[in-house]
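In this section we walk through a basic example: taking a raw amino acid sequence and producing a predicted 3D structure, encoded as discrete structure tokens. The instruction is simple. Fold the sequence below.
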Amino acid sequence: MANYNKVVIIGNLTREPDYKQLGSGQAVCKLTIANNRSYKNKQTGATVSEVCFIDVDVWGPQADHCRQYLQKGRPVLIDGRLKQENWTDAEGKARSRHGIVAERVVFLGTANASENAASEGFSGQEEFSAPKKAASSISGEMSFKDESPFEDDLPF
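The resulting token sequence is shown next.
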């Protein structure tokens, strides 16, 4: 039987990133994001809001970038996989929860966050897992160049 474990979610950070350097030298940054959903209740006609809180682990160089650029309230896109954690609590009860291990973190910006970050040389939307970016020295903005297999050879 085939298995596939992929999660893509957008949410806002509910607290400051929790960055740690492990004894092995590996960096990990723990994030908690809130994802909101609103819908209309068909029986009452009232708008109902749901909030889902998700724990995210970011490893390696991306963890360093998260520590440097993210703060509470900042919107992010997380592309990763689900992971179940199991433990025994202080009372001896078996506990578990699901979280996300990030493979890619994209920083999404609001107008206010973009203005603050632009003064530090950071545009409003960055993806730190992308290996190749071409910077424009004239405007100071980041530009992306398509590379194969995404490069277009179309006449328009």
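Looking at the output, two observations stand out. Residues 117-124, 129-140 have pLDDT under 50 and may be disordered. The beta strands are 7-13, 18-21, 27-40, 47-59, 75-88, 94-107, 126-127, 134-135, 142-143. In the next section we compare this with other chains.
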